[in-house]
Amino acid sequence: MHRREVLVFREPTPDDYRQLNTQPGNAAIAPLAFPDIRIPITQLFLQQMG
Questions:
Q1: What 8-state DSSP symbol labels residue 31?
Q2: Alpha helix stretches (DSSP H) within the chain
Q3: Average pLDDT over residues 20-25
Q4: 37 in Cβ contact with 24 (< 8 Å)
Q5: A single Gene Ontology molecular function, please (predicted)?
Q6: Could you tell me the pTM of the whole model?
Q7: In this predicted model, what pLDDT tens digit does every residue of 9-22 receive, in sequence order?
Q8: Which of 23, 38, 44, 47 could bond to 28 as cystine, CB 3.0-4.6 Å?
């Protein structure tokens, strides 16, 4: 089974990240630098033909 989700890593440290969020495929994400720009996760995946 394939799950469509995105892992969002923020606040890098020398060894890891302070924040890790898993967003489901029906959510939208926004870059920290441009929070008004929302990207639907569904647009990040190829649509299956058939």
A1: -
A2: none
A3: 94
A4: no
A5: endonuclease activity
A6: 0.71
A7: 999 999 999 999 99
A8: 38
